[in-house]
Amino acid sequence: MFEPNPPIDLSSGKYLKLWQGPQHPGITGNMSLELITRGDEVVDCKTHVGYLHRGFEKLMERRTFIQNFPVVCRIAVPEPTFNEYLYAAVVEELTGIESPPRAEWIRTLNLELMRLASYLMWLGGIGAAFGQSTVYQWTVTHRDYILDLFEEMTGARIYHMYIVPGGVRGRLPEGFEDRCRDVLNRVEKLLHDVEKVLFNNVVFKTRTKGLGHIPKEMVDPYGITGPNQRAAGFSRDLRKDAPYLVYDQLEFDLITATESDTYARSWVRYLEMHEGIRMLRQCLDRMPQDGPFQAKMPNVLHWEVPAGETYIKAECTRGEYGYYMVTDGSEYLRRVHVRGPSYTHAIALMEKLAVGTNIADIAGLMVSLHTYPPEIER
């Protein structure tokens, strides 16, 4: 386990305070690192957030249930679909509404497309952080192909507001499955090129192996989940451990590593992208073509949800993502709390891993943890 960072005496003249951010360092969003350095070595790190939109949870408590869908999407901008699903799932749990089977398959397809798009954005970020900007250009371009699919499916590229209580807003467009398969083939080909250019690159290997090592005994006390956890040797994934939607009907492998450093975390995510493509193809092949995509709903403009409380969780690209909701029988939420992995990974974990790191590797270390500050400022 890490020891507390010792106090630094800046008056000694041996140390220098530097700020990284709040402009986007890597792909980690609007947060700032207060770094204390000795030469080019970081000896202390403090994280600062609050540069982005805040107060999502309180905003949600002052809006009706249906009005919250434009709000929840903003909590994790690069992957808003997980917020849509979890919000819909907690409302369904409290109201007893069941989404029809066809909608469950479409939801799973939607989530895995979002995971792949998010990973492509992350993959470009880790490449650019270590001088491989070509990889960034490749992956962001292919992410746009997936955003084209979202626009076709939902009418929007980023904030879809497509998964709603009781199902989804509409059926898949005609010919969508074939166009989706074409995009998956293109992304799969790209991943093989990325493996050659990035993961087999001696400079990338030299700079990332050993960087930001997370001890295995630190994982549970710090609440580390997702690929950061699996790269430390833990075979855990909510899609396997607590299946939801149709994940129990899909075949996929859990990817793990033992080195628990920046390279291992990157490699785990890279292989998970291949598994995501495998799952998406299964969804396209096995999805029901007939049946309703939306359950019968009450008048959502005057919707009084029964009093109760529940917690629903799912596996997003960065780990366990959960919604805890309390209702009092009125048209408004009594309380909602969003549990995202970024709070632990970007604050408590980053402040420990940064110590002893070279300044040039700080951005890459941040990207390797894969965090989104909006979900910290919720």
Layout of helices and strands:
Elements lengths: L15 E5 L11 E7 L2 E8 L7 H6 L7 H4 L8 H15 L5 H29 L3 H22 L8 E2 L2 E2 L7 H24 L2 H7 L18 H4 L7 H4 L20 H25 L21 E9 L2 E9 L5 E7 L2 H12 L8 H8 L9
Antiparallel strand pairs: 1-2, 2-3, 4-5, 6-7, 7-8
Task: Describe, in plain words, how this protein is organized in 3D.
By secondary structure, the chain is an alpha+beta fold. The chain has one domain (56-375): Cytochrome-c3 Hydrogenase, chain B, CATH 1.10.645.10. 42% of the residues lie in helices and 13% in strands. The protein contains 12 helices and 8 strands. It has helices spanning 56-61, 69-72, 81-95, 101-129, 133-154, 176-199, 202-208, 227-230, 238-241, 262-286, 342-353, 362-369; strands at 16-20, 32-38, 41-48, 163-164, 167-168, 308-316, 319-327, 333-339. Strands 1-2-3 form a 3-stranded antiparallel beta sheet. Strands 6-7-8 form a 3-stranded antiparallel beta sheet. A two-stranded antiparallel sheet has the order 4-5. A hairpin with a 5-residue loop joins strand 7 (319-327) and strand 8. The longest helix has 29 residues, at 101-129. It is globular.
State the low-pLDDT regions, or none. Answer: none
Total strands: 8
Q: Give the CATH level 1 class.
A: Mainly Alpha
Class from secondary-structure proportions: alpha+beta
Do you know the CATH topology?
Cytochrome-c3 Hydrogenase, chain B
Percent of residues in helical segments? 40-55%
Average pLDDT taken over every residue: 90
Report, as a whole number of angstroms, the end-to-end distance: 29 Å
- Largest sheet report: 3 strands, antiparallel
